[in-house]
Design brief:
Rossmann fold, six-stranded parallel beta sheet, 18 helices, Protein ECERIFERUM 1-like
């Protein structure tokens, strides 16, 4: 398929022809806002689809309803008009080309061969999921203008698209399979991001856990079947309550060739290197997970006082430090005087507001805190700036700025580049210093210096 730029005169002709129906319903006073919007939307969607240079109409659509081939054109159909020039004149509706004998003889053959393209074989797969119903618009397959900016609260105009949003939710529910969000290339390493068609809220529903784990397991097996060497579990796909940080999948299939990485080691390394030099004490708040556990141990070993608010978490750490001289650096405290807070998911707004003015809040969580305390300074979730030669970084990763990538996602890339043939999930933890040095050597840099 070939892309061709239209002459300016042709654009004027298009505009004039497309405006005739709108002028007609306006002059005859038979129009409406719905009719106007519907017509413009249809014309725009069909026109862009015909010139997208990619065949995306599935064969099953014509199998279910054969007359559709006379009513709707495809990208390959219209591409022949640009390459052969004297054929396939019809815009949107091929019926007239069939009637007047201007249909290109290779139309069906080109359509068939375009659908038979080989899937790209990824080396590393990052498995994420949808966050909110509106998050679909912030992906590449949504709006490019939104995808290129960090995801914050839903835009007001997206609420006007609620019929489309509901349809997208229904489609993802029926389709029930992971889909490719992004493809990147880094030093000949082919990296793909796949999304599980589930929303953040569903991960907290106990009755949804089995279905989610089945989808993740299917994605792992698919990645292995395609030859991927590493698969990283992003966002809640590595939840402790959901699958024990990915350990469940190794138990289900202990002979997996693809290596599962939860990225905890790099997340720990990023947070450790975000804490200002000279810090003498930190407080942990929010849900205490695998990253928090190893962070606390590392900080105690570095001689920094660690304040833990919950008795259970404190006892678990104390047991680990019992035979070392670092146990005195661990304290059980509910005070809010510390100037550096390391926070996880589940931090309530009430507790966040108790932080004193000037407190530095550093998340170790997958999701950012609420940022309700205006007197505090907030860092991003564990992430790093990507090298300039990492290709196709055209969209933002959730709430992170452009060309900033989460530590969990970067970890998989590093495992692929270095050829580390090990799993990092469940209780397994990769060497924190080793992966931090590898990230710097490959051109990833800290977001804050």
């Amino acid at each position: 398929m070939i892309a061709v730029i239209h002459p300016f005169g042709e654009h004027i002709a298009y505009f004039t022809l497309f405006a005739i129906p709108l002028l007609t319903i306006t002059l005859t006073k038979t129009g409406s806002i719905v009719a106007f919007a519907g017509y413009v939307t249809y014309i725009d969607v069909m026109n862009n689809m015909g010139h997208c240079n990619f065949e995306l109409i599935p064969k099953i659509a014509f199998s279910i309803f054969p007359p559709l081939k006379y009513l709707m054109y495809t990208p390959t159909y219209h591409s022949l008009h640009h390459t052969q020039f004297r054929t396939n004149y019809s815009l949107f509706m091929p019926f007239y080309d069939y009637v007047y004998g201007t249909l290109d003889k290779s139309t069906d053959t080109l359509y068939e061969t375009s659908l038979e393209r080989k899937d790209e074989t990824p080396d590393v797969v990052h498995l994420t999921h949808l966050t909110t119903p509106e998050s679909i618009y912030h992906m590449r397959l949504g709006f490019a203008s939104l995808a290129s900016k960090p995801y914050t609260s839903p835009k007001w105009y997206l609420r006007m698209l609620w019929p489309v949003t509901i349809w997208s939710m229904i489609i993802t529910w029926i389709y029930g399979k992971t889909f490719v969000v992004e493809r990147n290339v880094f030093k000949k390493l082919k990296v793909q991001t796949w999304a599980v068609p589930k929303y953040k809220i569903q991960y907290f529903m106990e009755w949804q856990r089995e279905a989610i784990n089945d989808l993740v397991m299917e994605a792992i097996l698919e990645a292995e079947g395609k030859g991927a060497k590493v698969l990283t579990l992003g966002l809640l796909n590595q939840g402790e309550e959901l699958n024990r940080n990915g350990e469940l999948f190794l138990r289900r299939n202990p002979k997996l060739k693809v290596k599962l990485v939860d990225g905890s080691s790099l997340a720990v390394a990023v947070v450790l290197n975000t804490i200002p030099k000279g810090t003498t004490q930190v407080a942990f708040r929010g849900h205490f997970n695998k990253v928090a556990y190893h962070l606390a141990l590392a900080l105690c070993h570095k001689g920094i006082q660690v304040a833990i608010a919950r008795q259970g978490d404190y006892q678990k750490l104390k047991l680990e430090l019992e035979s070392t001289d670092d146990q005195d650096n661990l304290i059980l405290s509910n005070t809010h005087s510390q100037k550096v807070w390391l926070v996880g998911d589940g931090l309530s707004k009430e507790e966040e507001l108790k932080a004193s003015k000037g407190t530095l809040i550093i998340p170790y969580s997958q999701f950012p805190p609420n940022k309700v305390n205006k007197g505090c300074f907030y860092q991003t979730t564990p992430a790093m700036l990507t090298p300039k030669h990492l290709e196709n970084i055209d969209s933002c990763e959730n709430w992170l700025p452009r060309r900033v990538m989460s530590a969990w996602r970067i970890a998989g890339i590093l495992h692929g580049l270095e050829g580390w043939n090990v799993n990092e999930c469940g209780n397994e933890m990769f060497n924190v210093e080793k992966i931090w040095q590898a990230s710097l050597q490959h051109g990833f840099t800290p977001v804050t210096k």
